[in-house]
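Page 47, continued from p. 46.
Same chain as before, 503 aa.
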Amino acid sequence: MLEDLQKNRVVVVGAGWAGLGATYHLAKQGYDVTLLEAGPYPGGLVAGWQTAGGKSVEAGIHGFWYPYRNIFSLINELEINPFTTWTRSAQYSPAGLEVESPIFQDLPRLPTPLGTFIYTQFQRLPLVDRLSALPLLYSLIDFDNSDEAWRRYDSITARELFKTFGVSARLYKEAFEPMLLVGLFAPGEQCSAAATLGMLYYFVLAHQPDFDVVWCRGTVGEKIFRPWVEKIEKLGVKVLAKHRVTDVIVDNNCRVKSVVCGDEVFDADAVIFSVGITGMKKIVASSPSLQNHEEFRNLNNLGAIDVLATRLWFDRKIDIPRPSNACFGFDDTTGWTFFDLNALHDEFKHQKETVVEVDFYHANQFLNLSDEEIMRIVQGYLATCIPGFKEAKVIDSSVIRLGNAVTHFSPGSYRYMLPAKTSFENVFMSGDWIINRHGSWSQEKAYVTGLEAANLVISHLQNGKKADILPIEKDEPHIQIARNMNQSIRDLGKSIFPNFWLP
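Result:
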């Protein structure tokens, strides 16, 4: 059997969470895996790198939330310790501090969503506005992450959803839209209601501790991906950076037999694509073989969002009450976050200067500005939140412009997203934009889809043991009961009025 396994060649395209997850598991099962990464380092957008002066930077800061069960399991398996303790966060507007969040798991656990509602510390938002969210709970019950639910809610915008359920204008503007701007990276009128409900439920409302978060104690590339890739290479995987896929070669049976990178050809018994939407669209654009399939042509209906990642070194220590902070109201369609790296990253803990990471999402209006103009805007925004930044001097900085960098879950996009299985019997998809039923989001979802793709390869080639994928925590009993009752009513309605019910 080992000899058979050694003959199974798998090419994985993309070395982010999904690609590394698929590669690692298949390598442990004895497969001959080649991992192709278009960028200079494995890790995709979170690979991280160093400035000319040798300082660490990365394309934005990525949190690791309480429900990331599979990533935390991986970290334990790798026997590394990359994370901070659970941290508190805050939210600011031009008027000042708006919200502070506790460590929810440290407080008495209440039935969802009471804990989130009661323990979140709003500084200005009136109770009457917060109570206007109660009717919205029906949509969270009705949206069960099924294909039917996605199709039911994906065609409308998040803004329409909140308006339909009577959410007050102030609650929308000061709570829900800021969450969309840093969670789905776009304003409410540009976000799918289905994606909004999925994201809100997973990160905030499913269980009281879900909003608790830890951060990497350095760049994700250094603290997680580097030791992970070293372990992968020890398993015999060929990890090839600066290898951009340009085409695939298909045999007469509609199977991909090779992956092409310029003049290089890599033979494969199975292929896993683990790249973002922008990267996948580039591959399809250069590949006549993929363009012959409607599902891949339709990817041109999907989009991505611009991100601006900046890092600033100030000449003095500045008191930042919370290490992670989200901000809204500074620009109508842009959300931004800032992080105290002296508190989060090991390398900055004992420095005399203050180091902050400031990231902007849906940042298209900023990308064409000069670095100097961007720094003036960033410092002005920081000083509005925390006055100590006003007199401080920037002594070093980094600006990273990331066009079309993160998935845009726009209204109507669900119909064009790909499932893990494709019309090629030996080609499988993974990534945070792939359709699956696990229920996770962001980095956790990307990693889970990588494991799912690996399992599909194992099923297809009939060799190896499938990865154990930890499910998300079950809904609380009252949510399960409510969903079962809601589905029964829907089923009854369809049986009585079959032509009146949209999917």
